Amino acid sequence: MSLRYALLGFLSTTPASGYTLGQKFADGAGAMWEALPSQIYPELRRLETLGWVAGKTAPGDKLNRRIYTVTPLGARELKKWVEAESNEHPPERDAERVRMLFLDRSSPDAIRRHLERHRDHYGKRLEVARRNCASIEDGTSERLRDRLANSEPGERAFVTRMKWFAMDGLVRRAEMEIKWAEDILRWLQSAKAQRPASKAAPKRRAPRRGAT
Amino acid sequence: MSLRYALLGFLSTTPASGYTLGQKFADGAGAMWEALPSQIYPELRRLETLGWVAGKTAPGDKLNRRIYTVTPLGARELKKWVEAESNEHPPERDAERVRMLFLDRSSPDAIRRHLERHRDHYGKRLEVARRNCASIEDGTSERLRDRLANSEPGERAFVTRMKWFAMDGLVRRAEMEIKWAEDILRWLQSAKAQRPASKAAPKRRAPRRGAT
DNA sequence: CTGCCCATGTAAATCGTTACATGATTAC
DNA sequence: GTAATCATGTAACGATTTACATGGGCAG
């Protein structure tokens, strides 16, 4: 049910086509809720029949682009959703950590490769999120500009800051995942030095990390 | 497809019934991949027809508990999965951050309530994860003991450490989410002091956080 | 005129949730 | 004996992925 509101939210800043939304979802400000065309297009049609958005194709457009705009009803429904008290967090489903849990019977090399992929994956995400944060800070974010254009002048600093915090969450997440992977990689490296083959190594207790 | 391997993984440590797995998934070491009974039971049956696990009900058991054990084939398939190179990370779907993104048109009070729920939610997760970490460290973790019982003596320190790292990932995630929420809450508090009603506030640039 | 990107979809299959059903066991 | 918990499921629905289809525009 969140795809619906993610679409609605992005359209509440700037009217857009399904294709454009799909692009934003993949990389830009929308690296928060990814979805495929086959899910986006039907959902936009459903939003239209609900009367939450209005879609229009420009008469001369050969590409048949359908541009959607949020209706007042849609804006109210979006607000209802973001403010809802019953925000049950989604169930935890952390495939990477599950893998790590059961990689203990694999070779240190397999574990290392896995962690390097993890680190690199979040490295890319970090880059995107940092870039987005920067463009919010220096005012080059198109989406933020569109958003501010629809805001009261007195609210603009507030809106800017909220956007920044949201994006900063993605930065922090990526930083955490990278550090987690690197800490384990470092330990694997030092453990390897101690037990070159695969056996031995005196039993040591897992120490706490630096800060809590 | 990950539920299948999560089940397989947990069974590779200790044979268990579907009900038991459901419990572990909800709180204990399994706060990594939650699933409901209606998904767990059919999946276990499918794993059985695949020959990856063997299920048996003890003759005298009035409760009709079906205890599943991983077969050698199942163990090989699990290993194949955890070591697979094509570990595409799942698409990002972060409903909380999407909400934050579009909460900028709501009252600071609504935002505050939202963030407090976020903080409290991860506070509970942090407690569970810390408890699990602690029980791995002090050797009171039953699941770890079962796991070590099936491991070579020389590998035990390594296995212990890997389990700890996996669980530590959940600790770090929860700590990060709590800090994120608290940082925004603190800012809301200070911003409120500056603009008590809802207007004004001199435009300020979003500053970088302490460390990168 | 061939291959690639833009743009919008449909159909089938799989994964996950919600609602419901059933019976036995344990604690009060 | 009644309520909570143990234990296993089925059916229907909703969300998501995979595979496929289609046609216009643009660069070589």
Q: Which keywords apply here?
A:
DNA-binding, 212 residues, homodimer, elongated, mainly alpha, 3-stranded antiparallel beta sheet
Explain the overall architecture.
Two copies of one chain form a homodimer. Chain A has 212 residues and is mainly α. Helices cover 62% and strands 6% of the residues of chain A. Chain A contains eight helices and three strands, in the order H-E-H-H-E-E-H-H-H-H-H. Chain A has a three-stranded antiparallel beta sheet with strand order 1-3-2. In chain A, helix 2 crosses helix 3. About 4% of the residues of chain A have low confidence. Chain A binds a DNA duplex (28 and 28 nucleotides) through helix 2 and helix 3.
Count of discrete alpha- or pi-helical segments spanning 4 or more residues of chain A = 8
Low-confidence spans of chain A: 198-205
The succession of helices and strands of chain A, N to C, reads: HEHHEEHHHHH
Helix/strand class of chain A: mainly alpha
Number of strands of chain A: 3
Largest interface: A-B, 87 and 88 residues
Biggest sheet details of chain A: 3 strands, antiparallel
| Overall 3D shape of chain A | elongated
Helix amount of chain A? 55-70%
Strand content of chain A: 5-15%
